[in-house]
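Quick note —
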Amino acid sequence: MDKREIGCNAGKIWQILSDNANWSYDDLKKKSGLKDKELGAAIGWLARENKIEFEQEGEELYMYLCVNVYIG
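Predicted structure written out below.
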């Protein structure tokens, strides 16, 4: 796995998350078809770029797209 592949996987996850729903890790894994290592790297990529947010509900962690609004 290299940076290009991680970036492509991040794009795939971004597309899935673009439905504005909260997605669990397991649901993202099923929908994307990515392996744990690939999905983890893609989520890390998006988190580092401030593209996604996380929400904890009990034992489950959900992810969704960030809405960044810049005024300037």
